[in-house]
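Re: that chain you flagged

S.,

Sorry for the slow reply, it's been a week of failed gels. I finally had a moment to sit down with the sequence you sent. For the record, here it is as I used it:
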Amino acid sequence: MSCESSPSTQDLRDALLEGLLLMTPEAILSTDRHQRILSFNPGAEAIFGYRAHEILGESLERLIPQRFREFHREHVRRFGAGGKQSRPMGERSEILGLRKSGEEFPAQASISYIPHNGGMYTVILRDVSEQRRTQAALAQAEHFARDAIRSIAEGISNLTGEPFFRELVQRLSRELRVDYAFIAELDRETQKSVRTVAACVRGTFGPTFDYSLPGTPCEGLLSEDCCVYPAGIRRYFPGDGLLARLQVEAYLGVPLRAQDGRVVGILVAMHSQPLEETEIAVSTLRIFASRAAAELERLRSEAALQESEAQLRQIQKMEAIGRLAGGIAHDFNNLLAVINGYSELALQRTDLPSGLPELLGDIRAAGDRAAILTRQLLSFSRRQVGQPVLVDLNESVTHLERILRRLIGEDIELRIQPAAEPAPVWADAGQLAQVVMNLVVNARDAMPLGGLIEVSVEFCETPPPDAPPSRSSPPGWARLTVRDTGCGIDTETQGRIFEPFFTTKREGEGTGLGLAIVYGIVQRAGGTIELESEVGKGTTFRVLLPLGVRDDCVLPEKQRAEPATGSETVLVLEDEELLRNLIRDVLQSAGYRVLLAESAEKALRVCAEETGPVHLLVTDVVMPGMNGREAAEHLAALRPGIRVLFISGYAEDEVLRYGISLRDALFLPKPFTPAQLTRTIREILDNGPR
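Prediction finished late last night. Pasting the C-alpha cells below so you have them in one place:
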C-alpha cells in the first residue's frame, strides 16, 4: 500500500519544526536581507550556545569571528549581486563560527536565498570540530607509523569519495601483496549484510557486490577489533560462497568504526596463498581503516545534510504553492460570507413564496460545505490554527461521500457505514475531513487495478492503550476505520509510515506528508491511530477519537441562534464592497447604527467627522495600504476606548503575522453567519475584548 496521499499538507511548518528542525543536529537558521536572525532551531542552540530568545532579531555577525565580519558582509553582497539562489555544502571547504563562550569552531555551511518579504536567507551549518579533531589525531598517529605505510596513506589523502576508496584498496592490495581487497559499508537497517564501495581483484577494480555476514569471517568484525586467518580459512567457514569461489586461503579483516564506536563497515584483504608476518599487515589495515571510516562517515553526513536540504527546498516550494492557495481561499471566503449571509437573512423572512425556503436552504448548505473546503485550503496554505468544535463524525464521513467517489474513480467500490447514532467528537471540521480524505486516497493508491474501500464509524468504551493523558475521562471513544483490499504494507515500511517526507512513491509523485499530517491532526484531537496490514492482504487504519456529550446533544453546526441586537454605533472597515454591504445590512437589521469605509484613510476621515460616539470598529486585517491593525491603532488615538473586532479570510497565523494578538483582540474568521457576527459584537460591547 502506498504510504501517502495526494492531498498535501495542512501544516507544512509543523512538519518542518516538529520533524526536521527539532531532530536534526545541524544548525538551521534564517535571516532577513539585513542579516537579522529570524529563526534559530535547537541544533543551532546546541552548536552556538545561545538560546533562541537570546539571538532572535540580532545580527548574524554575532556568530562570526570579528576578523571575518567585513569579509562576510562583502560575501553576502557578492552573493546577492551574482543572482545565485543557493550555494551547496562543499563549495567552500570550511568557515569559522563563534560560540556564545567566545570559542571559534570550524564548520561547513550551505546557504540559499528566498525571494520573499524583501529577501530571506536560509543557512544550514554543521559543526565539524570533532571531525577535524579526529583527522588531527589520525595525522599524528600516522606520523609515528612506518615510513612505507605513511607514504601510502599520504598518497590518497587528497582524494574523496569513490576515487579515495578505489585508490585505497588498490594501494592496500599492492602493499600487502594480496589478490583481493575490498571496503564494504554495513547495512544500517539489518546489520547483517554489507555492500562493497570498492574492490580490487588481482590489481584491477572489481564490481561491487552484496555480502551476507552470517556464517562468514566478516560476522566477527561486528564485535572484534580484527579477524586474522593466515591460512586454511575455508576449513573454518565452509558455507562462505565467496571464499570458495575465489579459492581464498588467507583472510585479514578489520572493522570501520565511526567516532562514537559504531561499526559502519569493514576493510578486508584476502589471498589465495598463506600469509606470513600478519602483524604488520593488520597494522596497515587499521591505519587504512581509520581513514576509510572517516571518509565513509563524512559521505554519510553529507548525504544526510543533502536530504535535509532537499526537504527544506520541498517545504519552500510547497510554501509558495500554499500562499497561492491561501490567497484563493481568502477571496473565496469573502464571497462565501456574502452568499451565506444573504441566504440566512432571506431565510429569516416569513413572507417567502412556497418552495423558496427549501432552495435557500440548499444554497446555505452548499455554502457551509464550501466553507469547509476553504478551511482545508487554508490548512494547506500554512499553519492554520485549528478551531475545535463538537463535530458529528457520522456527518463528516457521509458529507464527504460524493467527493470521495470522485477521488477514487469508478474501478474502486466505496462502502460508507456510519454509526447508528451521532458520534460527536471535538475536532476542527476541516482537519477531520482531511483525515478521512487522506486515508481514503492513500487506500486508492494501493489498488491501481481496483478493489474495495470500507469507511465505517462505530463506538468503543475502552480507551486505546496509547491514548494521551487527559484531565477528564471522555464518555467513550469513536472509532473511524478505513479498510482496503490493496497490496498491503511490509513490516519495515510500517515502522516509518507516519514519518514526515517518507514515501514509497517515485520521486516527484508525492510529498511524503499525507500520513504524517493525519497523525498530527489525530494527536492534537486527543486521539490515536492504529495500523494493521499484511503484504497482499490489504490495510486497515483505525482512528480513535474521544467522544463529546452524546445524550441529546445539539451540534454547533445545527444551531441557528437569532441575531443579538443593539443600538450602538459600529464603524465597518472592509475593502470588499459586497461583504461591506452585507455587514451593514446585518447590523442595521439588528438595530445598530453603521458607518462604512472601504479604506483605512476613509475610516479615519469618517471617525473624525462623526460627532457622536463610535463604540466598535469591525475591520478586515489584510487590506491595500494601511492594514487593519494599523488602522485600529490610529483610530484608538482619535477615539480612546473604541473596541475592535478583526475579521479575515486568511488563516489565523497570517493574522498573527500582522501583529495582532488573538489573546488581546477578538478575531472572527470568514465566512461567518449573521448570527455569529451579531453575537460576537454583542459580546464585545457587553464584556470587552477577551
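What I noticed first: Residues 550-561 have pLDDT under 50 and may be disordered.

Talk soon,
D.
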